[in-house]
């Protein structure tokens, strides 16, 4: 499984979580059309910037990884695929207005967004990120994660999963999947609002509810 379990500051109390971190919200769009290539995150962010230029100023904004499937023919875009944009709550209405119903093209794959809907981020005791950007070495990666969590004042137990690389053109991002569990409600929200690591615009470091811990090595 990679890094295994690690405990971080189990008795730390987290208070006034919104004092320094803006409230975030998920905007959910139905997504239909052609399947994008595996390197889609880079071009997809560029397309969203074209439609909503103000996103360039939002370091905390990001796109959750698309839930694509594979078969013998390669990658597929399922009919119920959603594009989920996480951004400061105060920008939600503007993003919905600019993106709803818009066509997007990613490396020649043509897709269209449905009407955007707000989805409030809920506090779950266990959350999961498909990939958190960081060092390629597991030990160095986990050391950096612990330091970031201490800086946030978030206490929880860590399970590090498989190493991942996201590449496209001249860009390459390395990291690991990560589960954080035994979170108190305020710490869970704080973590989901802030995220971990860099490259959230490409789907990294964004946490969502995770109901089971078993099978992490399959990520």
Structure description:
The chain has 219 residues and is an alpha+beta fold. The protein has two domains: 114 residues, Alpha-Beta Plaits, CATH 3.30.70; 96 residues, Alpha-Beta Plaits (2-Layer Sandwich). It is 21% helix and 34% strand. It has four helices and 13 strands. A hairpin with a 2-residue loop joins strand 11 and strand 12. The longest helix is centred in the middle third of the chain and has 15 residues. The termini are close together.
Report on the biggest sheet.
6 strands, antiparallel
Query: How many beta-strand elements?
Result: 13
How far from one another are the termini?
Answer: 10 Å
User: What spatial form do the alpha-carbon principal axes imply?
Assistant: globular
The H-and-E topology, N to C, reads as EEHEEEEHEEEEHEEHE
Strand content: 25-35%
Indicate how many domains the architecture comprises: 2
* Fraction in helix: 10-25%
Helix-strand makeup class = alpha+beta
Q: What's the tally of helices?
A: 4
- CATH top level of the largest domain is Alpha Beta
Write the CATH fold name of the largest domain: Alpha-Beta Plaits
Q: What would you say the CATH architecture of the largest domain is?
A: 2-Layer Sandwich
Low-confidence stretches: 6-18, 214-219
Q: What is the average of the pLDDT values?
A: 86
Q: What assembly state would you assign to the polypeptide chains in this entry?
A: single chain
Give the radius of gyration. 17 Å
């Amino acid at each position: 499984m990679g890094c295994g379990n690690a405990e971080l500051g189990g008795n730390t109390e987290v208070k006034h979580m919104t004092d320094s971190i803006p409230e975030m919200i998920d905007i959910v769009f139905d997504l239909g059309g052609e399947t994008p290539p595996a390197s889609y995150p880079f071009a997809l962010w560029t397309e969203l910037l074209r439609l909503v230029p103000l996103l360039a100023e939002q370091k905390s904004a990001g796109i959750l990884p698309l839930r694509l499937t594979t078969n013998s023919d390669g990658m597929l875009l399922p009919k119920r695929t959603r594009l989920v944009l996480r951004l400061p709550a105060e920008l939600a209405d503007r993003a919905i207005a600019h993106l709803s119903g818009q066509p997007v093209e990613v490396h020649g794959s043509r897709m269209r967004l449905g009407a955007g809907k707000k989805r409030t981020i809920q506090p779950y005791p266990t959350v999961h990120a498909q990939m958190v950007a960081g060092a390629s070495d597991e030990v160095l990666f986990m050391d950096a994660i612990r330091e970031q969590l201490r800086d946030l004042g978030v206490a929880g137990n860590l399970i590090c999963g498989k190493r991942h690389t996201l590449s496209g053109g001249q860009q390459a991002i390395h990291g690991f999947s990560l589960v954080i569990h035994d979170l108190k409600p305020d710490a869970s929200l704080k973590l989901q609002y802030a995220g971990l690591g860099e490259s959230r615009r490409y789907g990294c470091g964004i946490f969502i509810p995770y109901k089971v811990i078993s099978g992490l090595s399959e990520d």
